[in-house]
Amino acid sequence: MHSASIAAPPPLQGIGLDGWRGLIADWSSDRQAFHVSWGKAMMWIFLLSDTFVFSCFLTGYMTVRVSTTASWPNPSEVFALHVGGADIPLLLIAIMTFVLISSSGTMAMAVNFAYRHDRVNAATLMLVTATCGEIFVGMQAFEWSKLIIEEGVRPWGNPMGAAQFGSAFFMITGFHGLHVTGGVIFLFIVAFKLIRGDYDRSGNYQIVEIAGLYWHFVDLVWVFIFALFYLW
């Protein structure tokens, strides 16, 4: 009886210890993952997490708005601006929205010039964008002062209706205003480094695009706040 010859099993396919060490070394030293730079990937992750936060805030606001038994203040009256002896509904809010949305256009142009390695025009447009952000925050501070001093609105109550109005307004608009302020500082820093020529040495201007991603996100969030808080 002939014994059947048994073929030796093929060698185990996989990544050995040295292979894992090489993979870890590559990922820890590389600037890109999945064809996206680390800086851009981390900004997308941050914006995704921030989307969840703003979604929770706005969902909570809508839930309170529809469930409260007290009358909700009319935004057209609360946020009216007294001009020429007449109250114009949402005038200040409309100007704020126009300024902030316009800044998205200047930011997009700054990114375009940055990828052309035109640091002067890119920095100039970033400074224009940051200035628009400052104007927006300044008008928001005026809006807050008017509501607190003239209308008597507080986070725990207000004389115009539902007590939750003040807490929802100050929390949502304040959190967004904090993002705009942080974005303004970020833009000023990047613009200063552009003017100084810091990115000419590496030839990598992607930081301008990363700053643009953040700024466009801030503008997009304001569109939802404007629609749900001021128009509803």
Strand fraction: under 5%
| Class of secondary structure makeup | mainly alpha
Average pLDDT across residues?
86
Number of helices: 7
Give the N-to-C terminal Cα separation.
91 Å
Helix content: 55-70%
Biggest β-sheet description: 2 strands, antiparallel
Regions with pLDDT < 50 over 5+ consecutive residues? 1-6
Major sheet: order of its strands?
Answer: 1-2
Shape: flat
Strand element count: 4
What series of H and E elements makes up the topology? HEEHHEEHHHH
What would you report as the Rg, rounded to the nearest angstrom?
26 Å
Your description of this structure?
The chain is flat and about 65 Å long. With 232 residues, it is mainly alpha-helical. The strands form 2 sheets. A two-stranded antiparallel ribbon has the order 1-2. A two-stranded antiparallel sheet has the order 3-4. It contains 7 helices and 4 strands, in the order αββααββαααα. A hairpin with a 2-residue loop joins strand 1 and strand 2 (36-37).
Write the layout of secondary structure elements.
Layout: H1 17-29, E1 32-33, E2 36-37, H2 38-67, H3 75-78, E3 81-83, E4 86-88, H4 91-115, H5 119-150, H6 164-196, H7 206-230
Antiparallel strand pairs: 1-2, 3-4
Helix pairs in contact: 2-6, 2-7, 4-5, 4-7, 5-6, 6-7
Provide key terms for this protein:
single chain, 232 residues, mainly alpha, two-stranded antiparallel sheet, two-stranded antiparallel ribbon, 7 helices, 4 strands, 70% helix, disordered N terminus
